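Page 47, continued from p. 46.
Same chain as before, 223 aa.
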Amino acid sequence: MEIKMKRWQISESIIVGVLLALSGGFMDAYSYINRGKVFANAETGNIILMTLKICEGKFLDSINYLIPILSFAIGVAVCEIIKHRKEKINIIHWRQIIVVFEIAAFVFVAFLPQDMNQVANSIISMISGIQFATFPKVRGTAMATTMCTGNLKSGTQNLYRGIKTNDKSALEKGLYYYICIFVFIMGTMMGYFAVNFFAEKAILFAAGMMTVIFLIMFKEFEN
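Result:
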């Protein structure tokens, strides 16, 4: 009896998911440590910090957190626009077009001085929104590579279900979620040390990760 292995789109592959999670953790560390203590990805945190500033009467300071929130939303919209304009353009998939845009944005941010941190954070948050909307799954499982709260919930639920019912599929999904969280943490650690050595230019490491993803995506499927 012939056993057919399931094929996954390369954009949902484990290697792409790992690189995206590394990049996600890296972006948050970079923006928080080097760009004025603002989270690039964790918009819930930015919403809380913005609201606290408003409550303190520091309305101008609250704008520092409002900008990345709006930029994240714009990033999601950009992804949808590109996606629905054309699924494929010649040999390059629409996701590769978005990845090229991300690489260019990271390179641009690397050369912005400290007095342009709001601009840098808005661009990084936009990229986070784009990544969140462009790569929503790993091996068919809905998963965020730019934040961890949802992954922590879903991972725990699947592990519990898998252990209780001996469901191997649920256990596998739970493992994927926790691996994603672990890799995100590794990306944050990488961001911490990279910023200490390379300051603003550290974001070029994230550009390098996205370049690898761009090249990998010339392969359409992964077994």
